[in-house]
Amino acid sequence: MTWPALRTILDGAVVTAALAAVSILLSLPLGLLLALLRWRRIPMVAGVLAAFVSVVRATPFVTLVLFVFFILPSAGLELEPVPAAILALTLNTAAFSSEIWRSALQTFPRDQLEAATAFGLSERATFTRIVFPQIWRANLGPLVSEVTILLKCTPAVAVIGVVEITRAAGRVGAETYEPLPPFLVATLIYTALIATLVRGQRVVERRIARRFGWVRP
Amino acid sequence: MAEIDAAISVRGVCKDFDGFEVLRDIDLDLAPGTTTCILGPSGSGKSTFLRCLNWLEEPSAGSIRIDGTLIGRSGEGKAARPMARRELARARTSIAMVFQHFALWPHLTVLGNVIEAPVHVVGRPRRQAEEEGRAILARVGLAEKADAYPHTLSGGQKQRVAISRALAMKPKVILFDEPTSALDPEMVGEVLGVIRELAKEGLTMVVVTHEMGFARDVADTIVFMDGGRIREVATPTAFFTNPQSDRAQRFIRRHG
């Protein structure tokens, strides 16, 4: 494979990594916010959010990307391909991760919450000081797994013309009539990205275990 | 005893859960510096009553004053209105609680548990809170556990941490909800020993318990509840040697 061909794929890798990074940073907090709003059981809001989450979870990701890019403009939201891709990825991962956050909140030990109330902690302090520090650690595994799924969803944004790894590899393959080398490179890059995420998870988990002495089974 | 002098003053407290009456028309005054044990069969409403005192359960009717200050509602009778959350939280800082199942926060160290509310609710400087916290832990025999995490402790040690957490608030009143019921028998003594010491120091404490021997030795006042009502309020000697009601007599025969 020639250097320019490799460059094309590496450029695609930068796009994929950037899309994923921005979407992760937006979607995990948004998922938490959705879960918190549903946890409060505000009558109308909870229903609307539950419906939103169900619809997004049921929609194939490619369909969601097409929806954001082609349908939202008629509702007045016209986006360039890259922002549209980020929005689609963010909505998708926010919906899925909100279910992780929600079950974490629902199963949070009641007695700890009661103790916080009895000692005068405000709702905000109870969340920031007691609940959040525990639920993110306990759900690191599922959250990272959600993030790897996000990474693997990124080729779908090629349908609206964003050139990421897979699309770039496809182009190189089409030009050289040798699809194997570019797709091998693409696979290697995906593996490296996901290995980085999993490695990051391990490091954090080990640090938690060292500090708190929790031995993972 | 004049109502205004009472550390805890309860008037006409009722509580029902979905139409089922758990507490009926409870009046009680407890003097400052005294230890009160609430006794009674399971389901008599003792824990619910205790939890009403710091508004963890909201009474359906009635008023509760801690050291003269109304809890949970501002104003009485027709003028009564639920307290704002922030106001209620502030009121709760003068009523500490010790739970049956400890309810420690597992992600914080022992000292972290003890100073959490003093620092983040009361706003005490961290260094001062830590010094005070370590002194309290030393008092309950846990000085060397300050930096340990709760899951490394025995049940008795956890409950002593929970008591330290309560003491660190410098509360006017400490509520104990069956503090030894979740403990292995050999650890009951160490926890009761700590509470006994606190009683000698003149803290105002209300203890829901099944430990008859402890109640007899330590309590200044016994409150006997049954069927959601207070049936008897007496000194331990009077209660255990000469109970007035049939129910109390039966209860003592079974448990005493």
Automatic annotation (TrEMBL), chain A:
UniProt entry tagged with the keyword Phosphoprotein: no
Single GO cellular component term: ATP-binding cassette (ABC) transporter complex
Q: Where in the cell is it found?
A: Cell inner membrane; Cell membrane
**GO molecular function ontology, one term from the record:** L-cystine transmembrane transporter activity
Q: Which UniProt keywords apply?
A: Amino-acid transport, Cell membrane, Membrane, Transmembrane, Transmembrane helix, Transport
| UniProt domain ABC transmembrane type-1: residue ranges | 13-198
Q: Does the keyword Transport apply?
A: yes
Ranges annotated as spanning the membrane: 12-37, 49-72, 180-198
User: Source organism's superkingdom?
Assistant: Bacteria
Q: How is this protein positioned relative to the membrane?
A: Multi-pass membrane protein
> Into which family does the record put it?
Belongs to the binding-protein-dependent transport system permease family. HisMQ subfamily.
UniProt name for this protein: Putative glutamine ABC transporter permease protein GlnP
Organism encoding this protein: Methylobacterium symbioticum
Gene name of this polypeptide: glnP_1
From TrEMBL, chain B:
Q: Where in the cell is it found?
A: Cell membrane
InterPro entries per record? AAA+_ATPase (IPR003593), ABC_ATPase_HisP-typ (IPR030679), ABC_transporter-like_ATP-bd (IPR003439), ABC_transporter-like_CS (IPR017871), MetN_ABC_transporter-like (IPR050086), P-loop_NTPase (IPR027417)
Highest taxon, organism lineage: Bacteria
Q: Which SMART domains match?
A: AAA
One GO cellular component this record assigns the protein to is:
plasma membrane
How this chain sits in the membrane, per its record, is: Peripheral membrane protein
The alphabetical list of record keywords is:
Amino-acid transport, ATP-binding, Cell membrane, Hydrolase, Membrane, Nucleotide-binding, Transport
Question: Where would I find the ABC transporter domain in this sequence?
Answer: 8-252
Q: Which PROSITE patterns match?
A: ABC_TRANSPORTER_1 (PS00211), ABC_TRANSPORTER_2 (PS50893)
Broad class of the protein's primary localization: membrane
EC number(s) recorded for this UniProt protein: 3.6.3.-
Query: Could you cite one Gene Ontology molecular function of this protein?
Result: ATP hydrolysis activity
Output this protein's name: Glutamine transport ATP-binding protein GlnQ
